[in-house]
Amino acid sequence: MTTNRVLVTGASGFVGRWSLEPLLARGAEVHAVQRHAPPTTAGVIAHAADLHDREAVESLMRRIKPTHLLHFAWIATPGVYLTSLDNPLWLRSSLQVVDAFLANGGSRVVVAGTVAEYDWSAGVCSERTTPCRPATLYAACKHAQYEVLERWSAQVGFSFAEGRLFWTYGPEESPERFVPGMIHASLARRPFQLRYPAQVRDYLHVADVGAAFSALLASEVQGAVNIGSGKGVALSRLGEIVGEETSEGLVIQPGDGANDPAPIVFADVSRLTRDVGFTPRYRLEQGLRDTVAWWKAHGSPASLTRPESRMQA
Questions:
Q1: What fold is seen in the domain 168-203+230-309?
Q2: Residue spans of alpha helices (H) in the chain
Q3: What residue segments make up the domains of the chain, in order of their start?
Q4: How confident is the model over 106-162, as pLDDT tens digits?
Q5: Which pTM value belongs to this model?
Q6: Disulfide: which of 16, 126, 159, 251 matches 268 by Cβ 3.0-4.6 Å?
Q7: DSSP of 221-259, one letter per residue?
Q8: Which CATH architecture has domain 5-166+220-227?
C-alpha cells in the first residue's frame, strides 16, 4: 500500500484507532478524521470534521483526495446503539461520505459491518451461505449500507468490501462493555451475572481486528469478509480465563439458561484466511492476559460497580 492515501473515519473509536499503525506499517499515507480531538498516533495526519455535514465532508475529500476509504464511524454507545434512531442518520451520512470519496477519485472502499446482520440460528456464520436477517435497527442499517454499496460498486466499478465484525475485546475498550465488566468483577472479587453461561461466541483481540481491516483494505477482495477468530468460546469459559489472568478468580451467577435464542454463534473465517491472507496474532488466553494487564495499569473505573447492568454478549 506504499503509494496509497487512506482516509480512516471513526479513527478515535475502539477499532478505528487500532487500524492506524497497521496501515502505517503497510506504507500508506494515513489520514484520520473524527469530530473533535485528533489521534495521537505518530505519523497519522489528523482532521476534524462532522461527517453528518455534507459540505464539510466534500471539503475534506477535496483537500485529501484519498485513494482508499476505511469507514468505521457509526454510533456505538453501549446499551444504546442497537435501537438508536441515530442509526438511519449514520446510514445516510455514510453513503454521503462514499459519494464524496468517489467524486474525488477514490477507488477502494472498506466499511465495518457486523455479525448482527446474520441469521444467528445458523450457528457458524459464512459470508457465502448464511442468510442475513437483521433483528435490530442497528443491524438493519448496517446491512442496508452493505447492500447499497455492493450494488453501487457493481454498477459503477469501484472496489468494495465489508469487514463483518464479530465480538471484540482488548485494551481501551469502553468500561460498559462485556469483557471489561468481567475483568472488573474479578478484580473487585464481586460475582458476575451471566444469563446464558453456555452461550458460545467468537472473540478477537482488537489489535488483530485493526490489522485484519488493514489487510482487507490492502487486498482486492470484494464483498463481505468475516472478521473473527473462527473459534467459539463458551462465556463461562471466558470468565474462567479472566479469573485465571487476574489471579482473583471470577464467580459466575448464572441464569437458568433456558430459551437462549442463539446458543452458538461464531465465524467461518476461510475468506479472511485464504483470500485476504490474514491470521490473528493473539490466542484468547494471551489476548485476555494483555487486556487484564491494561486494566490493572489503568485502574478499574467506578462506573463498573454494578455488574448486573452488564450486557449479555
A1: UDP-galactose 4-epimerase; domain 1 (3.90.25)
A2: 16-25, 54-64, 86-103, 137-156, 178-187, 206-218, 235-246, 270, 284-298
A3: 5-166+220-227, 168-203+230-309
A4: 999 999 999 999 999 999 999 999 999 999 999 999 999 999 999 999 999 999 999
A5: 0.94
A6: 126
A7: --EEEEES-S--EEHHHHHHHHHHHHTS---EEE---TT
A8: 3-Layer(aba) Sandwich (3.40)
